[in-house]
Design goal:
The complex is a heterodimer of chains A (215) and B (480). Chain A is built from 5 helices and 12 strands. With 215 residues, chain A is an alpha/beta fold. Chain B has 21 helices and 12 strands. Chain B is globular and about 85 Å long. Classes of the chains: A alpha/beta (215), B alpha/beta (480).
């Protein structure tokens, strides 16, 4: 017998229940009306909560009033941290006037040599201070992964309370999952040498968030 | 399991003594324990700030896992169908050897000479690295702890902190050798530089490997996705850059929905490291889509049994709920006295003391279910409420039922059972024993050298609680 047949036969014996077809139909039906577990009480100030949690996870955050102000905020951040004014960006933020802030921004997937990556996000989660990014032709996953510095533009209207809310938004707007849904909560870290936390393991060492519409 | 691995499991008792005498290991463990315990306590306490109750959350998590296991055949079937619909391939492996065979075949099919790996305990079960190396394919562990352990030619000693047993000096010696540079004196202030050094070396491996191998923290049936939780970002690298991605995971890891995943994610990182969420949580579905610039062209799931299906419907089914957070070992006095290698196989601590005998044969790991103080710290912190001490107790019963205990122990148990069935005689004997112990303690309340079992008092005193038995104290109290 095939490995599949063998294993599923053993599982069936262990489960010890008949009517596979009936149980399967019931399971599929249950998927359609997925219930949520206990939900956290987040309060009404999603922006404040998101910001506090993101900072707690070692992201840095600034707020600007409009999207048009984002390039200047990015330029100021790079300057303050002694970083070059060059970056790779995802297409969802390509329309901004980066040149006016004297930034050289290339819209393409990131390569190893890129020092700074700029992206938008699908939404953000107030509960944990987390970004939700979707992979896609316009939004390659490498931009938020390979460079040492990741700068994300977060429209405050896209901040939801919980991961469940983020999934609800994804179902409503996209229907199905892209190849990769990446939840990002601050810079990459490791504690593997003597339990000492170090920022910047394999992913970015710095995550900077520009909150748009909050100032 | 190899003969060597089996022999190691059998030697738990001997290895325990050796680990206790290892000063470097003891220093590393003493440093780690309060960090693990403190971080989890803080993480769990933070639930209350959001009006969440740990007990309620864990009973929800437990129900999700129980519900899935009750219909595991159905959920596996749905997962397989949906994963295939997204363009992934789904393979099945009965045991570790079959896992290795499948992965080596895949590597040959796609011309792979190097595979980068994100942490997968199942690949340790399969001894996959050895199989890959034997087939001329270089496996590179990319989790920093796993990388250190691989350089040392060792196995992980903890499921989420693989190199917890290593001191900074040992890590430095490995890095100097592997990275071809002179040895330096390192203090904790150098740890960021050492992490940076490993980052630079491993980055080149990420960029050049043709295959990425990962585990999965969960499989989501609804979407046919693998969920991967990491802090370092190596999980994202391994599943984004190479052209082939192989997910190796146990058949028990499936859960129904994204909502179930969200619930379990409130439990898993908090129980493991105290974090409210890990830095990177990825849901990986299918292969590179039309127009995508990154992601694997080929995604292959290997769903592994290796003893899991046999636990369904058995006295040990509760163990299949395990979400591999490591909280049980982080709170275990036995684990923190000995470290993970003393356990002799892939999984250490209380979960290992249950899983190792079940997956490698009860007769091959006789000591492990006894490697417990019965304190139930593990059961109390388990995020899916696995009754670990009860499962270890059941394994000890089974050892006895199958005649696997020494004749002296079996005889003693039989004598005890006989005595306990005769209340008058029992009371008479226990009175004598209590007086005898009190006499040995010589009024100090402690026995310094206990002749009947000298090992017990080799490094500590045996406390004597009272010169009178429980029955005597109870009847005296009823009279007043």
């Amino acid at each position: 017998m095939s490995a599949r047949g063998d294993i599923l036969e053993r599982v069936r014996r262990g489960v010890g229940r008949d009517d596979f077809a009936g149980r399967r139909a019931a399971a599929i039906a249950a998927l359609g009306s997925a219930g949520r577990g206990p939900q956290p009480v987040i309060g009404a100030d999603l922006v404040g909560r998101f910001r506090a949690k993101a900072e707690y996870l070692s992201s840095t955050v600034v707020a600007v009033a409009t999207q048009a102000e984002a390039p200047a905020a990015v330029a100021a951040y790079l300057l303050a941290n002694g970083l070059a004014g060059e970056a790779v960006a995802t297409a969802d933020v390509a329309g901004l006037d980066w040149a006016a802030s004297r930034l050289s921004v290339a819209v393409r997937p990131a390569v190893d040599a890129d020092k700074t990556g700029i992206s938008g996000c699908f939404c953000a989660i107030a509960e944990t201070g987390t970004l939700m990014l979707l992979s896609g032709p316009e939004t390659p996953a490498t931009v938020s992964l390979l460079p040492e510095t990741h700068i994300a533009l977060v429209d405050v209207s896209r901040i939801v309370a919980t991961m469940e809310d983020a999934f609800a938004l994804l179902r409503a707007e996209r229907g199905s999952l892209p190849r990769a849904v990446n939840f990002i909560s601050g810079p990459s870290r490791t504690g593997d040498i003597e339990q000492t936390i170090v920022l910047g393991a394999h992913g970015p060492c710095r995550v900077h968030l520009i909150l748009i519409g909050a100032a | 399991m190899s003969a060597v691995g089996r022999a190691q499991v059998m030697n738990f008792h001997d290895r325990a003594g050796e680990k206790l005498r290892n000063a470097g290991l003891q220093r590393a463990l003493r440093k780690a324990k309060p960090l693990f315990v403190g971080k989890r306590a803080k993480g769990i306490a933070s639930l209350a700030e959001d009006g969440l109750d740990f007990e309620m959350l864990r009973s929800t998590g437990k129900n999700i896992r129980n519900r899935t296991l009750a219909d595991l055949d159905v959920w596996l079937d749905i997962f397989e169908e949906r994963a295939k619909a997204t363009g992934a391939e789904v393979l099945w492996a009965r045991d570790g050897a079959e896992v290795s065979r499948l992965v080596v075949d895949i590597a040959h099919r796609y011309g792979v000479s190097k595979a980068v790996k994100s942490k997968s305990m199942l690949s340790e079960e399969a001894q996959l690295n050895d199989a890959l190396a034997a087939a001329g394919i270089r496996p590179v562990e990319t989790d920093l702890g796993e990388y250190i352990v691989q350089l040392a030619g060792e196995t992980p000693s903890h499921i989420i902190a693989p190199a917890v047993h290593k001191t900074i000096a040992e890590v430095e010696a490995l890095f100097a050798r592997e990275h071809g540079r002179p040895l330096e004196t390192r203090t904790s202030a150098d740890i960021p530089a050492m992490a940076q050094e490993a980052r630079a070396v491993l980055r080149q491996h990420f960029l050049s490997a043709e295959m990425g191998i990962s585990g999965a923290n969960f499989l989501i049936a609804e979407t046919g996705s693998a969920a991967l939780v990491t802090n370092e970002g190596n999980g994202r690298m391994v599943t984004t850059l190479p052209k082939v991605h192989v997910v190796i995971t146990g058949i028990e890891k499936v859960i129904p929905t994204l909502e179930d995943f969200a619930t379990l994610m409130r439990l898993l990182p908090r129980s493991a490291t105290g974090q409210s969420i890990s830095n990177y949580v990825s849901l990986l579905t299918g292969t590179r889509r039309e127009g995508d610039h990154d992601g694997p062209e080929k995604t292959i799931f290997i769903l592994v049994d290796n003893g899991r299906a046999n636990l369904l419907g058995s006295d040990y089914q509760d163990m299949l709920r395990c979400i591999r957070c490591g909280a049980c070992m982080n709170h275990c006095p036995v684990y923190f006295s000995l470290g993970g290698h003393a356990y002799g196989w892939v999984y250490p601590g209380p979960m290992g003391s249950v899983l190792t005998p079940l997956y490698t044969g009860i007769e091959n790991a006789l000591d492990l279910p006894h490697a417990t103080t019965g304190c139930n710290q593990c059961g109390a912190v388990c995020p899916v409420d696995i009754p670990l001490p009860a499962l270890m107790h059941r394994l000890r019963e089974e050892q006895n039922e199958r005649g696997l205990r020494p004749w002296s122990e079996r005889l003693a148990l039989q004598a005890w059972a006989w005595l306990a069935g005769k209340p008058r005689l029992y009371r008479w004997v226990t009175r004598r024993v209590a007086r005898y112990l009190d006499w040995l303690a010589d009024g100090s309340g402690r026995i310094r050298i206990f002749g009947l079992a000298p090992e017990w008092t080799a490094g500590r005193d045996l406390p004597v609680s009272s010169s009178r038995t429980f029955h005597e104290l109870y009847s005296a109290r009823k009279k007043t």
